[in-house]
Amino acid sequence: MSAKTEAEIRALKDKFNTICDAGKLVDKSKRKLLDATLDMVGDDLSTADLKMMGKVVSEISMGLEVFRPYHAWRKVSVFGSARTKETHAHYAQAKACGAALKEAGFMVITGGGGGMMQAANEGAGRDVSFGINISLPMEQQPNPIVNGSPRSFECKYFFTRKLFFLKESDAVILTPGGFGTFDEGFELLTLLQTGRNPPIPVVLLEAPGDDFWGPFLNSWVRRLLDNGLISPDDTHLFYHTDDVQDAVQHIEEYYLNYHSFRYVGKEILIRMNNPLSANALERLNAEFSDILHSGEITQVYNWPANDDASFAHYPRLRLNINHHRINVMTQLIRRMNGLYAQEH
């Protein structure tokens, strides 16, 4: 790096620190972002690395802008093959799935390409569809449903594309697909297993009589269990069906009383639409005490103090979980929903 460039970077950092010290930039997250950017620019990175980082930041900024107006809507990502023909039973099933999700009030996110992605977008319709396309050497084109839509954008990198699939999804439906579909599915299951993604429903959907997911469930998963490579609780991270209405109902029931999830230090917060009765809370503690690191599951309000103000009215459960048991969260949430439903 030239002496002139070093001097320019120092001047930018000095100006940045002056602005922060004057109290003109009080948001800590924004300060960290700008500080990290200045550090990166000041490092002696290659032109290729700088181009990559610039493109990554640009893609993330674009995705945030596209999804920002739709934070209040529940969304479901539908993954599947780009190669499926419109005459195939798989296509008809994915199209019916998109239509059923729309009918249930969900928006639909796909990879924006053809095949199963187009089918799900077609079923849902343009107005409630998102398409996150990928720039590939074979030039995958946006499908006609999302092409030109303000809810469609293209990524160069798979990891930024998958970031938005999972960040914005309240559930994922895996339809028959190839390596890409399995890549997305295995990454999601890994993130759920390790607690690096909020607990969400995952549905393995196939056409009636097709048995596409049978070998995966009856051979791969069984082998992993028998060899001790996954736990029995991991098999509750996904739900298998060949019925579209059953798939959608599985997702709807998950959000009967559950609202959202976040970490607060080492503790977990589960926001609910409605509070649990004392009896329901007692039963939840009795059934899930073995997954706690310490204490018990308590029902609280207005905790933590720094929670998003828009969530202030939601009752929530507070628990200190044994993080080796984080893969049980979806079961706990479904049981909480069930206990609430029994009393209402």
3D architecture notes:
With 344 residues, the chain is an alpha/beta fold. It folds into 3 domains: 3-68, no CATH class; 72-254, Rossmann fold; 258-342. Helix content is 44%, strand content 17%. The protein contains 11 helices and 11 strands. The chain has helices spanning 3-21, 28-42, 47-67, 89-103, 116-124, 158-167, 179-193, 214-226, 244-254, 278-288, 329-342; strands spanning 75-79, 107-110, 129-134, 152-155, 171-174, 202-205, 239-241, 258-264, 267-272, 292-300, 316-321. The strands form 2 sheets. It has a 7-stranded parallel beta sheet with strand order 4-3-2-1-5-6-7, sandwiched between helices. A 4-stranded antiparallel beta sheet has the order 8-9-11-10, covered by helices on one side. Helix 8 (214-226) links the parallel strand 6 (202-205) and strand 7. Helix 1 (3-21) runs antiparallel to helix 2. The model has no long low-confidence stretch (mean pLDDT 93).
- Name of the CATH architecture of the largest domain: 3-Layer(aba) Sandwich
DSSP summary, beta strand count: 11
In helices, the fraction of residues equals 40-55%
- Structural class, from helix and strand content? alpha/beta
Domains (count): 3
CATH class of the largest domain: Alpha Beta
Poorly predicted regions are none
Sheet with the most strands, sense and barrel status? 7 strands, parallel
Mean pLDDT: 93
CATH topology (fold) name of the largest domain: Rossmann fold
Shape: globular
Q: SSE string, helix = H, strand = E? A: HHHEHEHEEHEHEHEHEEHEEH
How far apart the termini lie comes to 67 Å
CA gyration radius, whole angstroms: 23 Å
What is the overall number of helices?
11
Strand residues, percent: 15-25%
* Order of the strands making up the biggest sheet: 4-3-2-1-5-6-7
